[in-house]
Every structure is written in C-alpha cells, then in structure tokens.
C-alpha cells in the first residue's frame, strides 16, 4: 500500500513548525540580551540546565567555550547553536 501525500495538505503543518522554531529562536536570543559571552553558571541557567550538565557537554565536545582566567565563557552564538541542537534531538 502506497500513501499519497498532497504537498498542499502538509504545507500548513510545515509553516506552523517553521514558525514555532523561529519563535523559539527569537525567545532564546531575547533572553541572552546584548552580551557576547556568559560564564558557565549563568550559561547553564540561561539554558535551563544544571551547571554540571553544561560542563559535561563541554568536556564531551558537544559545546565550545573559552577559558578566561578561572572561568569558562560561552559565546551567545554557541549557546544559540546548542539550543538548536537540543531541539533537534527531542
């Protein structure tokens, strides 16, 4: 049995999904504000995860950070990219 899909039937579903993704991205960007980088504890809080979860992700190479003195700093672009990856995995 072959399922026929009419592109016009799924177009509203695709449009709604794209709109939702763009809204999530805009919400994430507004939450970060104008700053360029965030220390690990604050970055984890912004992502809504525990600090050790973010640290472990960094140690596994899933997210990049720069060491400045004693702190690990995460760029806003890196955090947004990480949020995008997280959404894809769900």
Describe the 3D structure:
The relative contact order is 0.15. The protein is elongated. The chain has helices spanning 7-32, 40-47, 51-59, 76-89, and strands at residues 37-39, 66-68, 71-75. It starts with 6 loop residues before the first helix and ends with a helix. It has a 3-stranded antiparallel sheet. It has one domain (7-89): Multidrug-efflux Transporter Regulator, Chain: A, Domain 2 (Orthogonal Bundle), CATH 1.10.1660. It has 90 residues and is an alpha+beta fold.
Quick rundown:
By secondary structure, the chain is an alpha+beta fold.
**Looking across the biggest beta sheet, what order are the strands in?**
1-3-2
How far apart the termini lie comes to 30 Å
Q: Give the H and E element order.
A: HEHHEEH
Low-confidence stretches: none
List the helices and strands and how they pair.
Elements: H1 7-32, E1 37-39, H2 40-47, H3 51-59, E2 66-68, E3 71-75, H4 76-89
Antiparallel strand pairs: 1-3, 2-3
Helix pairs in contact: 1-4, 2-3
Overview features:
90 residues; three-stranded antiparallel β-sheet; Multidrug-efflux Transporter Regulator, Chain: A, Domain 2; single chain; alpha+beta; 63% helix
């Amino acid at each position: 049995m072959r399922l026929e899909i009419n592109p016009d039937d799924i177009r509203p579903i695709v449009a709604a999904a794209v709109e939702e993704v763009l809204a999530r991205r805009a919400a994430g960007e507004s939450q970060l504000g104008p700053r360029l980088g965030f220390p690990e504890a604050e970055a984890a809080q912004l992502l809504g995860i525990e600090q050790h979860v973010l640290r472990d992700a960094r140690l596994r190479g899933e997210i990049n950070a720069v060491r400045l003195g004693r702190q690990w700093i995460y760029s806003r672009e890196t955090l947004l990219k990480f949020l995008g990856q997280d959404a894809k995995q769900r």
